[in-house]
Design goal:
The complex is a heterodimer of chains A (about 120) and B (about 500).
Chain A: H1 3-6, E1 24-32, H2 39-45, H3 51-57, H4 73-85, E2 86-94, E3 101-105, E4 108-109, H5 115-118
Antiparallel strand pairs in A: 1-2, 2-3, 3-4
Chain B: E1 16-21, H1 27-38, E2 41-46, E3 49-54, H2 58-61, E4 69-77, H3 87-99, H4 102-130, H5 139-159, H6 176-198, E5 206-213, H7 216-224, H8 229-244, E6 247-248, E7 255-261, E8 266-271, H9 290-299, E9 307-310, H10 317-325, E10 330-335, H11 338-351, E11 357-361, E12 374-380, H12 393-403, E13 404-415, H13 416-423, E14 446-447, E15 458-459, H14 463-473, E16 481-490, E17 495-503
Parallel strand pairs in B: 5-6, 5-7, 9-10, 9-12, 10-11, 12-13
Antiparallel strand pairs in B: 1-3, 1-4, 2-3, 4-8, 7-8, 13-17, 14-15, 16-17
Helix pairs in contact in B: 3-8, 4-6, 9-10
The chains are: A alpha+beta (about 120), B alpha/beta (about 500).
Family (chain B): Belongs to the methyltransferase superfamily.
Subunit structure (chain B): Part of the heterodimeric THUMPD2-TRM112 methyltransferase complex; this complex forms an active tRNA methyltransferase, where TRMT112 acts as an activator of the catalytic subunit THUMPD2.
Catalytic activity (chain B): guanosine in U6 snRNA + S-adenosyl-L-methionine = N(2)-methylguanosine in U6 snRNA + S-adenosyl-L-homocysteine + H(+)
Amino acid sequence: MKLLTHNLLSSHVRGVGPRGFPLRLQATEVRINPVEFNPDFVARMIPKVEWAALLEAADTVPKEPIEGYEHDEKFLRKMHHVLLEVDVLEGTLQCPESGRLFPISRGIPNMLLSDEETET
Amino acid sequence: MAAVPTDSGSRPAAGARFFCTAGRGLEPFLMREVRARLAATQVEYISGKVFFTTCSDLNMLKKLKSAERLFLLIKKQFPLNVSSVSKGKILSEIQRLINDDPESWLNAISTWKNLLELDAKKDKLFQRAANPPKRKVEENDIINAKKLKTKQLQVLQESGECSLEKQTEEETQEQGDFLTEREKSQEAFQNDVVKAADAKNQKNLTFRVSCRCSGAIAKTFTAQVHLPPKEVGRITGIALMKQFGWKADLRNPNLEIFIHLNDIYSVVGIPVFRIPLASRAYIKTAGLRSTIAWALASLAEIQAGAFVLDPMCGLGTILLEAAKEWPDVYYVGADVSDSQLLGAYDNLKAAGLKNKIELLQVSVIDLPLPSESVDVIISDIPFGKKFKLGEDIKSILQEMERVLHVGGAIVLLLSEEHHRRLKDGDQSSIPLSSEGSHTGEPSIKKCLKPGGKTGTSETVSSSFEASSQECLDKTPPFGSLVPVECHKVSLGRTDAFICKYRKLHSLGL
């Protein structure tokens, strides 16, 4: 699971709503995957990123996107690494509101809720 | 994609004429594709085949995604006259296919050889560029290698011959999925080119005929004159041997000849590739048919930097096809099933696309995504009774609608049953999108009947084409999702609908 994906996921435990974002990430196994750098692609992802959530998940992230980031290769490469090359293979995602834990296994987060949990 | 050094002036001068078979309902997609990808002209769709002219080489032709198989056209003419149900007369009709116009046969075979030789040249240059021989690379070596390349080319051009070295396994380096893909199809190409080389003197050509008959003609052949397709093939074979001096080889021929006789035309062609185009080298385990998966993705308006979701991805076929065609996109596949996700993971790995496509284990009716966070949704909604209670097509569409951006597109493959369920949905007051349903295809070309009946033309359309508009008319809006296009397609034993929606406005407004 890439950090870009973590940035999108929100807990859907009943009654939690927007307070289910962001999920707290606990990684036990992480791998760095070299991914071909595409500055244009990274630049397009930046506006979609929830920055606070990204800061929580990763330590080496600039505080916020700098102005003119589209042309700042150093910045884009840093973001490329954080968003696309860090791969969480094993760990958990925790709903900040309910505490519910979702496991990550082989890089795939399992966010299925049980039948009881999906009942309103 | 690595740049392949090409020598200009080696492309076929005028275009060559081809035809493709396509699954029923996919013909409009194929017509659009050959125009866009191959700059094809004279594009016609007649009764299950798309005919077109293009200057493209094998590399580009190989990229066709919505076709089943590709053939070089030898001839297309009016259907065989079987009105006189006389075996003798019919046999002479078949022989006329070959004897009336031997020029067109020889021209087609010459074109075929040129295509294969041109491809072999490029292959060879690519090989040298990608797999340099193992030795210390110094300045001089590089210069010498370049000289060698040019010399090789000259030799190729002068002698008109084309002999491929056997690719040694030791020289193979891991250079990403592109090369792997090429290697897989390398064998097929090598075989084809070696055969073309053998056939430099056309008298040495070995061939095999495969024949297909359909329609009323087929019934006449089998029931009334006892002429099964194999027999037709055999007769054609004998005529070819007499006319050109070729030898038949049923096991491993240089040249394959394909004949299709039906009530609309008689078509003869040379299959261009050994393996059908629909069979993808990069897909390990196919779920949905690759041609349909690509067609779904082609409607979805995937742009660079988009977030594309398949919330019922199964083995990931749709995402694989999309990622191959539109690579600079963020793809996420989701499924509830452990086994499907494992299969998808395997597929992604085999295709070298693990870095392009993320996987989640989630339920489509309960997506852990914020509202309006997804740009495009493409999905093959599973058919049959696999759903749990309460998980019907409407709840699925509702959740998809929620996570989709305003203006975003949803492209779905729906079974007839699902489509019917949606038809019965409550009619919203939102009018049908003015974008209309047509994919902008020209009217079906006319086909002349024998006997010189000029002036009377027959428009040939499949029942599928006609029903696409009908199908769109019957698809009501779903909440803020407005139907844009609807195409009926064949999945073999069953039919299905490709339905595209667009989200017009936010929910709750």
